[in-house]
Amino acid sequence: MPLRTMWGASRPRVGFGVADAGILLGLAGLVYVGVRAAIGAPNVVPGPAISLQPQWLPYYTLLSVGRIVAAYLISLLFALAYGYGAAHNPTAALVLLPLLDVLQSVPILSFLPVAVLSLTAVLPEGVAVELASILLIVTSQAWNMAFSTYQSFTTVPRDLLEAAENYQFHPWLRFKLVELPFAARPLIWNSMLSWAGAWFFLMAAETFSLGTRDFRLPGLGSYLQTAAQAGNMQAVFQGLAALVLTIVILDQIIWRPAITWAQRFRLEAIGEEETTGSWLYDLLRRSWLVEQFGRHVGRPASEALDRLLTAGYHRPTATLRPSTPPRRWTRIVTGVLLGAGIAYGVVLAAQLLAQVSLQEWLGVLAGVGATLLRVAIALAVGLLWTVPSGVAIGTNPRVASVAQPAAQVTAAIPATAIFPIFVVALVAQPGGLNVAAILLMLLGTQWYILFNVIAGVASIPMDLYYTAEMLRLGPRLRWTRLTLPAIFPYLVTGLITASGGAWNASIVAEYVVVAGTTYAVTGVGALIAESSVAGNYPLLLASTLTLIVTVAAINWLVWRPLYRYAAEAFRME
């Protein structure tokens, strides 16, 4: 069977060795770092004050990483449940998929008033603001992962599903042994993109204000935001150095081992010529301690969970029918309650929108047009370099071994952290903040296109390359007859996600505060940011709804037809 279990095959170890000593030393180092950070951490500063002293950076970094980890775990559970439900229930998919399109288009700052005001109404302010920050980070992570799991669960090969059916697998075992392993590789890649999105919006998630109230949490994002607003470039570079170091460490201890581990789930009969390696993964595989933990703790716990979830399961047969018809009144009551809730929300929204003047509506429409132009320019510029670069990385293993890890690390560096530098440098130049806004959109969204192009090139079967070689196709014919048709579906997917990311990035690209000076350009992102800071909820709602309608219209009129065309004209069969 090509797909292995999560624990894999067990290989007995001879005993405690060098790998185990390295693991113990690494754990000791992590404990030491955590203890030192805790000892050196100052008391919680009252109010929104954030210190720019470098000794605070380890403490702030741990807080930010902790929030992103908590948000990622929530996003992962949401993505698995949402994708599984949409993939296995066609009726639910009719609602879940359009809802996911809408949620993806809602800017992160538009969730802010709902999250903060709702939580502060029922919880202490400190706890409420912390939870609100985590939920805001979730909104920058969850949607991309949900799309990935849905796509994976709906494209599991038929022969694997038929094998699970023939062996009468419980739904949990089918999910654990077939569906989840098949989804592991794309889910890990999308997890890296989701973490990059979390770093991108970290400053917005840790430093926000509503009206006259300033909610600010200690963390690396608030440190960078405070340094940028104060014009303290030394503190900005110190924060960036801490951020880059954190990203590199996380890449080495989490993502590289995860990518290497996920290679066990590939379906190819012939393995890849060159596979991704990880020194930490190799160390763990050679460890006697890890092997003993898997044998005596991990595997028994997994088997106990399997027994618990599959207890009393009897596979239904085709002759079994429910003895009584389903109760329709439960559906009716549920529909009535749901409709009443929606109607109540519509009434409240209409009351707020009635407070928006005609002049403000015209400003919203003008802002949408200006932001649409910037999004189009950013996508066009991104296409110019990501397509040839992605093809080069995907077709040349030697280039990929260097460029692919560099792209992963670079994608995780939040452009919002260095954006104030661009603003200061470009504000006096022709184009000014308009050029800086387009640049920030590009920095935040181009990676979606690049990684999808790489995935598209990697999916091209080797026999097509051999055929092109035998036919002696020149470079131009290879591009037009092989490469571009093969990557076109992936390219459309990358453009869809990049477009959504660009619209969200407009909030931080069109409105920025540097050294106490506010820089803003005409755009719907600037309107959302300004109305959020001022506590102008009617204008915030009007801007957000207009943005959602615009993005949804573009998806239906542009991206969906392109995706259907790609699926029909360039399908590999």
Helices and strands, with pairings:
Layout (H helix, E strand, L loop, with lengths): L17 H23 L16 H32 L1 H16 L2 H15 L2 H14 L3 H13 L3 H9 L4 H30 L1 H5 E4 L2 E4 L3 H11 L2 H30 L16 H7 L2 H23 L17 H26 L4 H38 L1 H16 L2 H12 L6 H26 L3 H9 L4 H35 L1 E4 L2 E4 L3 H11 L2 H33 L4
Antiparallel strand pairs: 1-2, 3-4
Would you kindly provide a written description of the structure presented here, covering whatever features stand out?
The chain has 573 residues and is mostly helical. The chain has 22 helices and 4 strands. It has a two-stranded antiparallel ribbon. It has a two-stranded antiparallel sheet with strand order 3-4. A hairpin with a 2-residue loop joins strand 1 and strand 2. Helix 15 packs across helix 18 (433-458), helix 15 packs parallel to helix 22 (537-569) and helix 17 crosses helix 18 (433-458). The longest helix is centred in the middle third of the chain and has 38 residues, at 358-395. It starts with 17 loop residues before the first helix and ends with a helix.
Q: Can you list the strand order of the major beta sheet? A: 1-2
Provide the succession of SSEs. Answer: HHHHHHHHHEEHHHHHHHHHHHEEHH
CATH superfamily assignment of the largest domain?
MetI-like
DSSP helix count?
22
CATH class category of the largest domain: Mainly Alpha
User: Which stretches are poorly predicted, pLDDT < 50 over at least 5 residues?
Assistant: 1-12, 37-47, 318-326
- From the 3D structure, determine the CATH topology of the largest domain: MetI-like fold
Overall mean pLDDT: 77
Shape: globular
